[in-house]
């Protein structure tokens, strides 16, 4: 994402006030997305007359930044969108502090990745987060793939994936709506109970425009508390940005 988009995101969050920025992060994201879309549509309609208003808004924000609440707000926003930050993960019962790096996916989202263990790559046109070191030939591949569908509703996608998983995987761990690590639907199945049996977990996340993001996790039973837990921590940092980029 270029500097101008980051500036616009920060300005919008600040204009909603310190309390909301600090206490209602998800609401700020929703406001931020809708505000950006409205402003771009307004720019198309009004043309050059938008820019004087933008200058006024920038002046207001600049003045706000010199106040103590303004500094608190900008610090909070920087924390959300920092290129790097430290998070706490609980892996196999042990708490770990990890430095994670902001990545922007081709499918229209941002996510934080521990780049000491994983990398973001493109496979068959889709974004995949993969370990830097895969296991041996007797271990199923490990990855998390993120893609967006626009021709089916989240509910329809969830039903299709649930049917697919139930047909292939005899052990069904969980299906249905969830609000952690993301708001949406989960479909979680396992091929069996052996240490190297394949595990699949899907999260279906509404994209706000009638479609959905599909977050597909693949690993094996023994890696559930390792890669599986780390993938879920990444999903918790997942945010959609395609609406911000509408032109």
Could you explain the architecture of this structure?
This protein is an alpha+beta fold and 247 residues long. The protein is built from 7 helices and 11 strands. Strand 8 (184-190) and strand 9 (198-206) form a beta hairpin. The radius of gyration is 20 Å and the shape is globular. The two termini are 14 Å apart. The model is unreliable at 16-24, 48-56 and 243-247 (pLDDT under 50).
Task: Write a compact overview of the structure shown.
This protein is an alpha+beta fold and 247 residues long.
Give the topology, please.
Layout: H1 3-15, H2 18-23, H3 25-46, H4 50-65, H5 68-80, E1 84-91, E2 94-105, E3 109-113, E4 118-123, E5 126-131, E6 143-149, H6 154-168, E7 171-178, E8 184-190, E9 198-206, E10 212-220, H7 224-236, E11 239-240
Antiparallel strand pairs: 1-2, 2-3, 3-11, 4-5, 5-6, 6-10, 7-8, 8-9, 9-10
Helix pairs in contact: 1-3
Query: Which strand order do you get reading across the main beta sheet?
Result: 4-5-6-10-9-8-7
Radius of gyration: 20 Å
By secondary-structure content and strand pairing, the structural class works out as: alpha+beta
- Characterize the largest beta sheet: strand count, sense, and whether it forms a barrel: 7 strands, antiparallel
Give the overall shape, derived from the CA principal axes: globular
In terms of quaternary structure, what is this? single chain
Helix content: 25-40%
Work out the number of β strands: 11
Uncertain runs are 16-24, 48-56, 243-247
Strand content: 25-35%
Number of helices: 7
Distance between the termini: 14 Å
User: How do the SSEs run, as a string of H and E?
Assistant: HHHHHEEEEEEHEEEEHE
**Average predicted confidence as pLDDT:** 79
């Amino acid at each position: 994402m270029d500097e101008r988009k980051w500036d616009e995101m920060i300005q919008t969050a600040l204009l909603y006030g310190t309390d909301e920025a600090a206490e209602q992060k998800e609401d700020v994201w929703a406001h931020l997305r809708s505000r950006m879309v409205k402003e771009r549509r307004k720019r198309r309609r009004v043309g050059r007359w938008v820019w004087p208003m933008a200058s006024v808004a920038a002046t207001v924000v600049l003045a706000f930044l010199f106040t103590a609440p303004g500094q608190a707000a900008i610090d909070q926003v920087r924390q959300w969108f920092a290129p790097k930050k430290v998070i706490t993960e609980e892996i196999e019962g042990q708490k770990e502090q990890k430095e994670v790096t902001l990545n922007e996916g081709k499918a229209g989202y941002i996510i934080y990745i521990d780049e000491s263990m994983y990398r973001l790559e493109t496979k068959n046109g889709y974004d995949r987060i993969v370990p830097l070191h895969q296991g041996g030939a007797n271990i199923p591949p490990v990855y998390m793939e993120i893609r967006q569908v626009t021709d089916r509703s989240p509910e329809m996608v969830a039903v299709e994936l649930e049917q697919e998983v139930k047909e292939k995987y005899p052990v069904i761990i969980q299906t249905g709506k969830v609000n952690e690590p993301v708001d949406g639907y989960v479909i979680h199945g396992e091929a069996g109970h052996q240490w190297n049996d394949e595990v699949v977990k899907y999260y279906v996340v509404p994209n706000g425009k009638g479609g959905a993001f599909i977050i597909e996790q693949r690993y094996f039973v023994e890696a559930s508390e390792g890669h599986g837990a780390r993938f879920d921590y990444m999903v918790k940092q997942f945010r959609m940005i395609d609406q911000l980029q509408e032109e």
